[in-house]
Each structure stands twice: as C-alpha cells, then as structure tokens.
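[SOLVED] Need 3D model of a two-part complex

Original post:
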Amino acid sequence: MDPKLGRMASALLVLLLLLEGGMFSSSQPSGLLGEVFQYIDVHQDDFVQTLKEWVAIESNSVQPEPRFRQELFRMMGLAADKLRRLGASVDSVDVGHQQLPDGQTLPIPPIVLAELGNDPKKPTVCFYGHLDVQPARPEDGWLTNPYTLTEVDGKLYGRGATDNKGPVLAWIHAVSAFKALDQDLPVNIKFIIEGMEEAGSVALEELVHREKDRFFSSVEYIVISDNLWISQRKPALTYGTRGNSYFTVEVKCRDQDFHSGTFGGILHEPMADLVALLGSLVDSSGHILIPGIYDHVAPLTEEEKKLYEAIDLDLGEYRNSSQVEKFLFDTKEEVLMHLWRYPSLSIHGIEGAYDEPGMKTVIPGRVIGKFSIRLVPHMNMSVVEKQVVQHLQDVFSRRNSSNKMAVSMTLGLHPWIADINDNQYLAAKRAIRTVFGTDPDMIRDGSTIPIAKIFQEILQKSVMMLPLGAVDDGEHSQNEKINRWNYIEGSKLFAAFFLEMANLHQ
Amino acid sequence: MDPKLGRMASALLVLLLLLEGGMFSSSQPSGLLGEVFQYIDVHQDDFVQTLKEWVAIESNSVQPEPRFRQELFRMMGLAADKLRRLGASVDSVDVGHQQLPDGQTLPIPPIVLAELGNDPKKPTVCFYGHLDVQPARPEDGWLTNPYTLTEVDGKLYGRGATDNKGPVLAWIHAVSAFKALDQDLPVNIKFIIEGMEEAGSVALEELVHREKDRFFSSVEYIVISDNLWISQRKPALTYGTRGNSYFTVEVKCRDQDFHSGTFGGILHEPMADLVALLGSLVDSSGHILIPGIYDHVAPLTEEEKKLYEAIDLDLGEYRNSSQVEKFLFDTKEEVLMHLWRYPSLSIHGIEGAYDEPGMKTVIPGRVIGKFSIRLVPHMNMSVVEKQVVQHLQDVFSRRNSSNKMAVSMTLGLHPWIADINDNQYLAAKRAIRTVFGTDPDMIRDGSTIPIAKIFQEILQKSVMMLPLGAVDDGEHSQNEKINRWNYIEGSKLFAAFFLEMANLHQ
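Solution:
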C-alpha cells in the first residue's frame, strides 16, 4: 500500500472518531496547546522518517556479540546528537564493561543524561527510555524486514518501533514542538536513556545511585513509557509491574554430542533429564508446581477486586487481537489478575540441543533449559531462588541420573507498585482526556520494567508509567509495530502533560 | 604438533605392536600383497592429502540449503573424476529432485555408479559409500575447523573424516595400489556412491530397484564400510544394524511468539505442552513408555546371549573413551544388548523455541519437538508409528490444552541382520587376521545404515559391513576424526580382502 494512502486512511479514521463524539470526543484545543498539536500534525512525516532511521539500527543488547554492541554505541550517539540539536546539555556517561558468563568482556553502551531548562519555579520531569531492542531475524516469521520501518494500513512495522524507540522519539517530538514554536517549556525536562534494558539494564542501577544527589537531585517526577495499553484504542495509565526472575538449568553428560545410534539406549540422556525438569515446573492449567511459590503472594482484597471489574476490556476482542483461540481463564477479572497480580512461569527454550529445520540424529551432550517466573507483590526474590533450586534438585535426584545439573538465577527484577493519587497521575489523566477525550484504563503491566522499581527505591521519587502503544503492538515478537496514530497522538499527549504539570504546580 | 612427528609416533606404535607379538602379531606379508602394503605405506601422505581435499567440501545433506547442495554436486563430481582416473567406467546418475515439507524443491546430487573389470572368472564385489556429511559449525565446540582436516597425534580431525569420506577413499586407495603396481585386480569391482545418506538416502532405493537387472546383475557381494569398531584398536565385522523412525511433534498456539510479561499466566503455553509430551516418552532408566512398543522385539535366546559374552569389550575403557561417567547398565552384555538388540528413544531438540546464548523473555508461539526411536528385529515400523501417534494424542488430550498438536514420522528405516556364515564374512575375517593379526569382534551396530537392508531386500545379495574407524571417532559429533593408522591399515585391509575373495572363489 502507498504510505500516503495509509496516512490518508488513518487521518480519515481520526476524523471519523472526532465526528462520532462519545468516547473520543476531544476537539483540537485552542491557544498554545493547539499550536503545538498543529505543529505535530504538520510534521508527522518527519517524525516517522526519524523513527525509520532509528529502527534501521540493529541495537540488539540481548545477544552478546561485538557487532551488535557497535550498533548500540551508534544508536546512543545518534540519540545524544538529536538531544544536543534540541538545545539540551548532554552527557554520554561511560558505564564500563560487562562480564559475560563465558569470561568474555564487552563494553556497555553509554547512558545518555540530558537536561533542558532549570527554572526553579517549574517542576522537573525526567523521562526514562531505552534504545536497545530484542533480537529479530527476518527468517523468524517477519512479513517485512525488521530493521526497515514499513508502513502498512497506518501501522509502522519494525523491531523497536513500540519498544521503545517510538515512545522515546514521541517525548523528544513534544519538546521539539515547544522549541520550534519559540515557546518556553512548561516544565524542566531531563532525559535518562539507556541501551541495555532488554539485557536487564546492566549498570543503570549503579549510575542512578551515583547520580542520585547530582543529576537526579532536582528531579521530582519520573515518567516511563515502555509498556502498552490493554486496548487497541483506549489509553491507559500504569501503576504496577511484575518482576522477573530468569533461570537457567544446565544438564551435562559431557561437552560433546553423541550419535543416537551409537549411544542411544545406554546413556542417561541430558535431554530426557531436562525435559523432566522443565515438565515439573508448571501444570497444564498454568499453576506453578514449585512448593511454596505462592506463599508470599499478596492476598486479594475486595477493594482490589473492584479495580479489575472497572477495567474496560472486551475479552473476546482481546483474544482475537492476540490470535489466541482460548485463554486459561474465561472472565476478564481472572485474566487480568493472572497477568498482573499472580506469578506466572514460562519456558523459553533450550540451548545446546538440535534447533534447526530438518533431522539430526544427535544426543545432545550438554543442554541448558531457560525459564522465568514473573514475580508479584510481595514475593521475595531470594526466597523464590531458593525454592526453585530446591525443587529442581529434588526432581533431579529422584531420577538417579549420572549427569550433572546446575541451576542458576541469571536475572532478578523486583515487582513495582505506585501511588495512583500522586500529582503526575492526575496531570496525565487530564492530558489523556484532552488528547483522547476519555479517562484512561488504570492498569498494571504483567511485564517487567525494572527501572520503575529502581527509581522508586533509590531516588524515592514519584514514578509513573504512561504508555503510548496499542495492545496489539507485538513487542518482543515478530512483526512488532507502533500505529502512526499512537506515535503522533502520543507526542501530543506528552506536550499536553507538560502543560498540565505546570498548571498543577502553580 | 608437527604432523611428521605424529606420523613417526604412529609408525613407532605400529612397530611396537608388531614386536610385542600376541594379539597384533601380523608381519608384512610377502609376494603381491607385500608389494601392495608397501605401496600403501609409501603413499600414505598422498592419501591423507586427498582426504583433506574431500573434507574441505561442506557436503551437508541434512540442512536443505542451496549452497550445501552445490557443495554436494561438487563432491560427487570430484569422486567421479577420481574413479575415472583409476580407469573405471563411471556413470553419474541424475536422480531428480527432492520435495521439502515447505514446498521447496532441491536437486538431489547424482549417485555415482562405477565399474572396474568384468572378468566372469572373478567374483564381483560392489562397494557402497556416501560422501555427504552431518552439519558441523565451528562454534558448536570444534577444537579445529571441521572442514580443514587437521592431524594431531596421529588423529585426522574433520567432518566426514570417518563418516564416510575416509573409508570410501581407503577402498579407492586399495584399488589404486594394484593399478599402480600394474597388477590385475583380483576381483571385479563396482562402486555405488551417494550424497544423501545423512538425509535418509533419498532416491537411492529407487535407483537400486532400477539398476537391479543391469548394474547390479553381476554383483555377488556388497560391502559397506560406514560404521565403527567397538574398540580403539581391535577390528570388527558387523552383521546387523538398528533401524530408525524419526518423529516431529508440533504444538502451536499461533505463528507469532508472545512476550512472557504480556501473556505469561493466561496461555496454554506451547512449550509447557511440548515438554510434557516429550517427558512422557522415556523414563530415567531409558525404558520407553509408549504402550506396546516392546511387543514385537525378538525374544533373547541363550545362543544369542553367548554372542555378547564372547565380545572383547572393556566397559571401563569404553566409558572412559566415551567420556561418560556412568552408563545405564553395569555389565558388558547389558550395554551391548541395549545398543544392538533393544530399541532406544532419544530426544534431539526443539525447533522454534529460544535456543541461543543469553536471555529472551519469549513465549514461543509454535514449537516442534524432535525425537527418534532406534528399531530392532522384529519391530514393525507402521505399528510403531501408530503407537507413537496414539500415545502422544492420549497425553495431549489429558492436558485439555487449546493448542493444536501434530505428530509426523519424517523418516523410517528398517533394522537389518546378515548371515555371518557367508563367503565374504569368511574372506574378511582372513584379511583382518593378515593385516591386524587378530580375529574380529563379531558385532552389530546400534545406528542405522538403511542401505544394508535395502540391498538385502531388493537385490537378495550378500551384504557385509566391514568398518575401518575406531570406537572414539565421534561420527556425527564435534571433533569427528579418523586415525591415520585406521585409514592406512584400512586401505591394506581392503586390498587383502580382494585377494581373499579371489582365493575363496577358486
């Protein structure tokens, strides 16, 4: 489809929604905000072009390969330049090297700290974002090249489009609109942008500690825009996220593989052990089988229960947009609770076994299973670690296998919960009403954005998650996208939020 | 280590063994055979160089990629040239195309048919070999480049060195020695060499059918040298092989992957289903759990039992050379029986899950488990197929999963058993005594060489497997090798076998 047609179609859709009234009843505001909105609308093709340039960079932080690291450095350099051209003072902080389990050392991409304005009469809002991405290979099932942003029907497909390059750019566009119109920014703005989020935000926590009394001393509010709405069209505000503890379990007979004809029948095969270990973790109803794992999960109160009932979620539509035939649960409330307030366990894959198309008659000699548990308040990570290790040791010892088993928790990220009566939640609600003409869904996020918890714990500042992406954006998946509409209206939302924050501060 | 030193060391070892007497008490024979042996000894470096050139070709038939197919065509062309220069009449038979499951079509490398001599007074021996190899990637744990034949301590490391390029060349060298010495070949020789063995000998069976009354009409004996001894130093003769039925089981929720934060807790995760399915196949003692699978396994007779007792196998040494801490069984007899006359089930791996180093928080949307069952007399392949499908359907239906499961048998190869009182077994025993000064171990092979069964069934001719490689050669594994000693003495063995066959024929 001609991208111009796509934009026309999406403009038409916006128009229809405006005319329709009801839920999306906002009209173009007058005054400064109106000018800002107009500026953003007029420049939307430039904004898409910039996103295209950023998506083109394969800034994969998950696979520890030097070529990806080079791309990450290039990505962070580009972001620093962009912020400098906006008039920000920019500091690209060298945060040293990363030690990999195999002894290899790789440089960590710099963390960009930037600031615009330091008027003591204005509130200071710090925006956090990341520019690294999950791996994506065209052969995994992408319909377009993951590193060539491609617009189809108003959807901008590309790795990192919604997670998190698009939202970072939307915030920058909001600032640039005020600048282009020669207007003072309503708030002091700071940026902290990293390149290792998908790999567990290596080195970020240490930097936040170090900058607590310097860069962050004047910061009052922190905004993160790294998750999704739970609807395709209705905005949301997020007040909690699950944590994550990622485990590897290695079973080893020897380093080399075996021929299944020459050795099949006389070995304790590592894959048989591993499959039994992984099969002992969760039952077919999604219930985690590790003893004690639910002990510290916060009990469900009647008050909390009502929160889920108020959420506007059409389960059928959600299922359709997810292309899932059937969920484990049949009611909206159960589905939301199992995504947000109960732990879950997912098996991600196996390293070291035969994983390619075709047939190979191999007995893998050493295999590594990978799974993770999404943590919720008030699970304790080190308790969870002990429970997992103990459980796997129990299962393994019952097998009487002569292989060696080693369990390790390779990543541990705490869950996070915010106070939704804070000023910036109020300002964001108002901004959402202005741009989208509706109140947001008040939601949690089942995935882990560790930085929320880090900011809250270390800085003791208010943290808010203000997502821009639609529920079907497919972050971490094949054919990730951000809608042009979300990207552009999201830029407006941030601009409106700046003004509302200034208003509340007066 | 300097390769020259390696050769000196290995020559010294041979000398020591010769001096030592006892088990390896042969001396250089006189007459024609002595000249042939001397010729082979003198030209051994040339023979290693030719093997190096053949190993350098990445003739991978397992992964259906056009670039590998090109290499296979190049490999078969090189072999045809080599045979032509030996004076053989050579026919490179085009056997058409291969249809892959994804609809793709790839050309099959030609099958080389060659013949040398057609004296009706001599017996006609046909040698079968293959020049395709299993996949090998340097990063899988190879200490040397798998496609650069590298000699260390008399071991020639490289993919295909022992399986099966080295043995094919040893037969060619045996023939070339008679030719170089201007001597008549004691037997008429035919060759059938293919390039698709590792992919299930696609198109070979059809060709054998077609050539039954032409190329094969004069053939009385078929020799295959595509397996290993069960000792590092003592030769063997093989009279049986296991079959193999290879299965894939696909579990699919949707084609795309999911983010484990956004969807973890509400899905029937395909990996949880697959791990349960694979975990239901075999218990920790190696016993296959598929109902009925042992029903048709031949009962063990007292007579057969004695065969295993006679085998010269030091279980401790075998375990050490295999780098395995403990086998499933503690006696030589039990180990041999579970490798040769009982079925085994190995889980090879999973396609579609996360298989790379590092962490990825993905819920794979569609995964394919791969496993195979080594078949023994008198298991029936189509019965096994039905049992496997029924079992997996039963396990899956008990899970009440909303995912789709599909089981398919992608390869089925029958087991094979030979008559060990045949002429060529007798000739081979004598030749082994001449070259190695010992009687061979009379063994079966746990792996599958389907061509043995094909020749036996279609041509009704005597089939013998005469292995050259040592037990620790690591076929299909990382760091595959053939010992220089086995390669060179193996060339002599074939030459001696030609003469013994001629003697028996008189």
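Edit: Confidence is low (pLDDT under 50) at residues 1-26 of chain B.
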